[in-house]
Amino acid sequence: MSLTGGVEQWAVDLRGEAHHPLAAGNGFVAVVDDDPFEPLRCNAYDLETGELEWRYSLEDGRRTGGATIAGGTVYFVATTGSRSGRVVGVGLEDGLERLSLDVDNPAIGYGPVPVPGGLFVPDGASSRLVTAEAFDGGSSAESDSTDSDSTETGTESEDTSPEDAESTGGSTAGDDDGGSTTDGDSSAADGSEASPDDSGWELPSLSVIESIVVISTSLASVLYGAVRVAARSAVDE
């Protein structure tokens, strides 16, 4: 609908459920609709006309946390089993799969968040965030933990490409559907290191403010550096 008058410009019917935020950018609107009994679908519509441009189906995908557009790619996380999931990147212009990366216990309260050098992907195990950097066919780079002595503040930035290490990411937020705390090592199934959030068990929301990823947990807030994974409790600042 129009921003000023609220007049409907176009409308489309969706199959199943679409209760997560849609993603808009580069003249497209991307919506991921999920159904527990049907393959998950990502639909891309023309922003001006509402015409369906393409549809991507993930046969074993069931639930999702919504889509994110960054650098000409639509990213989303989907559950593929009771304790398994996948982060998928689909070309915004053609709807072709560009990357696929398996993750454990995906948290589907929100979609991936673009940050300089990669994406923060919600991982439900121990409320972890796994960074998948340098997406070249779905490979994942290690993320080193660090104790930074400074923090940065600022206003919310626009969504940017995970390939652009000099820019800052956008933000998404939503209700987390779960993700209980578990003990053990913090390595992900794909071999990348995961940074555990020791201040809480759930991640209801996540946003990017300049180079800082701000995560609200059930007990406190934690700041994760966007370039390097760094967990610091907000109460210690």
UniProtKB/TrEMBL annotation:
| Stretches for region Disordered | 134-202
Q: Its domain of life?
A: Archaea
Tell me which positions the record assigns to the signal sequence: none
Q: Please name the InterPro entries in this protein's record.
A: PQQ_rpt_dom (IPR002372), Quinoprotein_ADH-like_sf (IPR011047), WD40/YVTN_repeat-like_dom_sf (IPR015943)
Bias kind Acidic residues: ranges: 144-166
What Gene3D superfamilies would the database entry show?
YVTN repeat-like/Quinoprotein amine dehydrogenase
Bias (Low complexity) occurs at 179-194
Per UniProt, residues of the Pyrrolo-quinoline quinone repeat domain are: 6-105
Q: Which protein, by its recorded name, is this?
A: PQQ-like domain-containing protein
Q: Say which species the protein is native to.
A: Halorubrum cibi
Taxonomic lineage of the native organism: Archaea, Methanobacteriati, Methanobacteriota, Stenosarchaea group, Halobacteria
